[in-house]
Amino acid sequence: MKQEREKTELAGYLAHLAKLELSDEEKSRYSKEMSDIINYVDKISAVSVSSKPLTSTISGVSHVVREDVATGSDLADELLSAAPGKKGRFVKVPRIL
Amino acid sequence: MKSVIKTLAGDLRDGKTSALALIRKTYEEIDNKDKDINAFVCLTEDEAEKQAREIDDKFAAGEKMPLLAGIPGAIKDIISIKGVKNTAASRILENFIPPYDAEVITRLRNHGAVFAGKTNLDEFAMGSSTEFSIFGPTRNPENGELVAGGSSGGSAAAVAAEMVPFALGTDTGGSIREPASFCGIVGFKPTYGRISRYGVIAYGSSLDQVGTLTRTVEDAAIVYEAIAGRDEKDSTTLDEQKPKVLDKLSVGVKGMKIGIPKEFFNEGVDQQVAAAVLKAIDNMRTAGAEITEVSLPLTDMALAVYLILSRAELSTNLARYDGVRYGLRAEGKTMEEIYKKTRGKGFGGEVKQRIMLGTFALSSGYSDKYYRHASAVRREIAREYAQVFEKVDVLLCPAAPETAFPIGSKTDDPLRMYAADILTVPINVAGLPAMVVPCGKAQGLPVGLQIIAAQGREDLCFQAGAAYEKIHENS
Questions:
Q1: B6 is catalytic
Q2: Which among A10, B168, B210, B292 is least buried, having the fewest CB atoms inside 10 angstroms?
Q3: How many Å lie between the alpha carbon of B344 and the closest alpha carbon of chain A?
Q4: What interface predicted TM-score (ipTM) does this complex get?
């Protein structure tokens, strides 16, 4: 029981970090699923590695740069129109400060 | 098998048909078949007819046109077409209309391809069955009680049911190859970085790759050549010259060195599936290929590595869906409340669970053990493949451990669902190109032969794939 409660609490904390509003039923379901998956993926700890974690793409692309040249785009109005709340040319949200 | 695209392209040039007639025929097929399959989530008839008329005008004016001109295709609903809803099968993007084309769409447009509509998928491409979709499941054209595979299930089913000659999909852990296997068609995922992902909704950015679903290997080559190659707008694309694949289709496999990775035939693989693949390998030997058994001992770790990395990446990528700039917004008095309500309501269950797991794998105290370690194991896996490819040209194995499974049979058991990708995820982890070609049946259902090559060697996938397709056709 105690373990169950701890798992659900962890689920609640992760949901808070991930900014997800979840029902109690969801929390309990996801914590069960997550613990099965974590048990499964724990097996990688048995692999000893000489490599460092990957810092380029897996096909070796890294440090991609291009000339610092300004290019135009006429998408601003269309991108703005996708926002669910707007006022003029601003995206509208509740007061932050 | 004769290329469907080439046949239609020939008919267009001989005046036997027109682009407009082709797209109308496509909608007729969809009308007749798709109520039982549910491959399409959106049809773009007006725009497609307009595109087709423009192509017909160019043919009439005697312009020299690319092979794909006037050929209808379907696009997975996670790839942006300007002005057409791009939902990712998610409530959170249900009404999202992108204001620009993905690079692959721009390239297909330049080749004159006509877009019939958008196809069904698992929400944000997260699934192996196309059941986790706000549009309901896509059904397997072979048997409506079974899944089409996923996440590119809509694209696979649309091609398998002959509604369109080609479709685009995306493949993060097998999402092109597993549905291709389940539906009995050709699926191709290139080397990581070969095709631009500009305008494609991100899932696991170090793994995602766009690819093709077609009925023949030659069709895959035609579409691949049209869309592959460096794009300045996607800095992960490969700089090098892409290998030409169309002229490899008739080379054959005489003297080709083929490796059989023994770990891909373990006890988890259905015996009839393994038998069909072993028969295909035997046919390749008869055709002159040199077959050797090889070992990739870390294969067993690949799914675990994939689960950690893909979840970590998706939890980061999906942070952008916050109800502010686009997509769904739930009302709230504070930003925090808007974020949580929007995301709680907008994402489906599987996606939420994955975001939680990714958040866990990246959280303080766990990120070294999970994310960083998985990333290091990933390099070991890639090294293992690189070593094997010093000895062989391609690897042959099954694409999936089983044939298409019944709808609803795995939705409540995530690990069983994820195991459907156990033979495809290692390829994404190592960044390799791989093709799936139909190779017979097990339990009366399609089985796919997976052909894997070294990074950058798409040409070898096509060479072996086309050779096998020919053998299979004549057997």
A1: no
A2: B292
A3: 5
A4: 0.95
